[in-house]
Amino acid sequence: MKRSFLSLCTVLLILASGCVNTSLSETASATGNSKTEKDTIDTGAKAKKEATATEVLSKKEVPVLCYHQIRDWKASDSKRAHDDIIPPANFKQHIKMLADSGYHTILPDQLYDYLNYGAKLPEKPIIISFDDTDLDQFTVAAPELKKYGFKGVFFIMTVSIGRPRYMSKAQIKTLSDEGHVIASHTWNHKNFTQFTDEDWAIQIDKPTKTLETITGKKVEYFAYPYGVWKPETLHKLKEHGFKAAFILSTKRDETNPLFTIRRIIDPGTYTAKNLNNSINKSFK
Ligand SMILES: [Zn+2]
């Protein structure tokens, strides 16, 4: 009974917050507490306990997919590039398979509230994410998601905004207004493990500000370029305003699991069945 009341509170608060970014989880991150400590958060209504790292790691993982370019292959593409380039026809089949299989897309705030506070998720939850700002994500992918009422997460590298073959500010704003989440993928794709002190301003703080100015919403999620990270500086992302960060399919960090949320690439070479098998195998 108590648990269902808490869930109801969570749902009501999330519904009430809408685009205004006043959700439970934000209140929590504002306290700056480490996930490794047990703690209670005053939400103004009901105190909520943050999960420990062990608790986060023990939860069933939510599948997160990662896409880059959505276009037909060219003769000049390397075989290796076919992992990151999915032809539109394949992409459409894969998204249809997800809908037909009963998947429901969720957004990072829902995943964060599930991992950190035990909030309920819809049946067969999944996150669909896109990296690197490619224009075809707006022209090809977004309309396909719309057919099924799906929402995605777009990790933007801000240096490319407005360049040929990349999304414009107006397109990014449109995605945000339509309920997709705009998130950070650095300024120019610099490897996170090579960040200098200056890079925390150049690759993190400035891109956040740029994206927040475009969307009018807070930017609280990050994806590591190349999926590469190092444990020593994960905590700094929290100090710079992020609630969680996404890697690729490597092992999560044991101290900061929220900053190493796993994703798998859906390669252009996969059939829809391959993708389904890969999801079931990779997220347990
Ligand atoms: Zn990237």
Explain how this protein is built.
This protein is α/β, with parallel strands linked by helices. The protein has a single domain, classed as Alpha-Beta Barrel (TIM Barrel), CATH 3.20.20. It has 10 helices and 10 strands. Helix 7 (169-177) links the parallel strand 6 (152-156) and strand 7. It is globular. The structure holds zinc ion. Zinc ion is lined by residues 131-132, 185, 189, 225.
Q: Could you give the distance between the termini?
A: 28 Å
Extract low-pLDDT stretches.
1-45
Architecture (CATH level 2) name: Alpha-Beta Barrel
Bound ions, cofactors and other small molecules, one mention each: zinc ion
Q: Tell me the CATH topology.
A: TIM Barrel
Computed CA radius of gyration, to the nearest angstrom: 18 Å
The overall number of domains is: 1
Number of helical regions: 10
Overall mean pLDDT? 88
